[in-house]
Amino acid sequence: MALLNWNDNLSVRIPSIDEQHKVLINMINSLQDAMSSGDSRAVLGDIFDGLLKYTDQHFTYEEALFAEHGYPETEDHTREHKAFVSKVTDLHKQFTGSSNFMIGVDVMKFLTDWLVNHIQGVDAKYSDHLLSKGVR
Known about the structure:
The chain is mostly helical.
């Protein structure tokens, strides 16, 4: 069962970014599914690692659009990206560095809450600006 489902409330109305957000949601759901089915630490680690890498790619994409189109809140938005990457990197290190650390409900709640709040709050702010510049 999916932890998080895509819906129109998560759309920033920019298809290229919405598609990336859907991938992130699917990765979080895959991580949840692997946890629920008792998959090995290796499987969990691979999914967690992939989520971290894809998030970095997604943030790089957004930040390149901000630079190209003069988004006025780039600095604040980028700061949020860096804080998230730092937190997830720390969680990943805890997971890979300890045989006792499992990806728990609190980590999944953090990932889903952050993603939903980030998309609906901070990402929604850039939508009109980038759309007005022709970004799709």
